[in-house]
Amino acid sequence: MRGLSLYIMREMLAPISFIALALTGVAWLTQSLRFVDEVVRGMPATSFLKITMLLLPSVLGMTLVLALFFGTIYAFHRLYAESELLVMWACGWSTGGLGRPALTLAALFCLVLYGLGLWLSPWGLRSVKDLQHEFQGSFLSVALQEGRFNSVGDGLTVYVRERLANGELAGLLVHDQSDPESPVTFMAERGALVDTKDGPRLLLVKGNRQVFGSDGRTPQFLFFDRNLVDISDRSEESDDLWFGAKERYLGELFAAPDGDRDLRKQGRLIAEGHHRLAFPLYALTLTLIAMTGVLSGEYDRRRRAWRLIVTGACGVGVLLAAMGFTYLAASDARAIPLIYANVAIPALVAAWLMRRNYLRRHASADLAAGLAR
């Protein structure tokens, strides 16, 4: 019996590994494309590779769940198509006995997913944010291309006529419209990028500051010898002092709000915490759905494809509902129980269907044996 269980697990691991590698490769490539511009701007290749590797734990959760689900369907379908399941049933193996190796593997995946979601994923995303902040100043130093209007940060445009050999910038124009009601324009003969404790700044030398008067039409000029302009990314998403929901550990998600921004995002943080607790359990739920789709019903090759399509659609639908309920719970705390119900109810229904099918098949076998006598 133990040998047969190991055989089923080996049959599952091959397709699961292939699907996981394929999906992870696609997800890794997609995440990497976000940083191609930074490589063009001068990010070292080693830093780019480090960032993309740190992003892997955040995508592995979904890819492993999908790989387990579709790998289970493929493995049991192959056993079914080659009549190996019929032999196992004839040898006295119940549906529960056939599903035990799959559920054991799903339980191991569940533990891995908890490790990813509760520790590795937030650690990786926090490390990426730290690296981005570390290289922000150096990115800007090569991002300001001469002869072009360079978009920097939120509502900030910088024009550089020429980059000098000593690193200085000549012929500068800076237009700041982060506040649409009072845009500001700076012009300077020369300047340079400097690093300060508050982030990168653009030092302007011998220039003027232009704003419009109260009538919105008359420009007002203020001439200066030296002036510092903040050109760091001032968008809310880039604030390195505040970690988003996916960048926080579980305890931080349920902690009391620390500041106004935490208070505004509290619903999102709590919803993410409940999602982290529930998501690894989908390894068990989707495995039950996969086994139900393959092992339930009569032995009928003609309707097999349709049953597999329905099984796949059910599994994907459950995962989509999980994301939908998490999004809903972020704005309405009353939806939080739906996050857990979406895990439990499909699993219970799948287990009930498998149990009913086993009892029906067992009753049919007893009736056939009775008629034979």
From TrEMBL:
Membrane topology: Multi-pass membrane protein
Domain of life: Bacteria
Cross-referenced Pfam families: LptF_LptG
Keyword annotations from UniProtKB, A to Z: Cell membrane, Membrane, Transmembrane, Transmembrane helix
Compartment annotation: Cell membrane
GO biological process terms, semicolon-separated: lipopolysaccharide transport
GO terms for cellular component: ATP-binding cassette (ABC) transporter complex
InterPro entries: LptG/LptF_permease
Transmembrane region(s): 12-31, 51-76, 97-120, 277-296, 308-329, 335-354
Protein name: Lipopolysaccharide export system permease protein LptF
